[in-house]
Amino acid sequence: MTPDKILFGYAVILLLAISIVALYSERRRRWFGSRPSDDHVFRCVKCAYVYTDDPDVDRSRCQQCGTSNEAIKF
Ligand SMILES: [Zn+2]
């Protein structure tokens, strides 16, 4: 074994490791993506319209009548 070959081996192993990590995280991202989204579900108290909004908002305006509603907790 020459130092060159050892270095080459290290590089290959490193690349493989990076590829595996990348594949794994990509897969995990896809699993999360295929999950029903984390968006909050809102149901308008006035017109009963059901809609979703970003997960970081607690209250959202109804897209139909503009009434402010609280998120439904499951
Ligand atoms: Zn409404």
Helices and strands in order:
Layout: H1 3-34, E1 40-43, E2 50-53, E3 59-61, E4 68-72
Antiparallel strand pairs: 1-2, 1-4, 3-4
What is the structural class?
Answer: alpha+beta
Radius of gyration: 24 Å
Outline the biggest β-sheet: 4 strands, antiparallel
C-alpha geometry: rod-shaped
The structural domain count equals 2
* Residues in helix, %: 40-55%
Query: How much is the average pLDDT?
Result: 88
List the ligand species.
zinc ion
| Strand order within the widest beta sheet | 2-1-4-3
Beta-strand content: 15-25%
- Stretches where pLDDT is under 50 for at least 5 consecutive residues are none
Order of helices and strands: HEEEE
Q: How far from one another are the termini?
A: 62 Å
Number of strands: 4
| Number of helices, counting only DSSP H or I runs of 4 residues or more | 1
Briefly summarize what is shown:
The protein has 74 residues and is of the alpha+beta class. The protein has 1 helix and 4 strands.
Question: Overview of this structure, please?
Answer:
The structure is a single chain. By secondary structure, the chain is α+β, with helices and mostly antiparallel strands. It has two domains: 1-35; 37-74. Helices cover 43% and strands 22% of the residues. It has one helix and four strands; from the N terminus they run αββββ. Strands 2-1-4-3 form a four-stranded antiparallel sheet, with no helix packed on it. A hairpin with a 6-residue loop joins strand 3 (59-61) and strand 4. The termini are far apart. Bound molecules: zinc ion. Zinc ion (ZN) is lined by residues 44, 46-47, 49, 62, 64-65, 67.
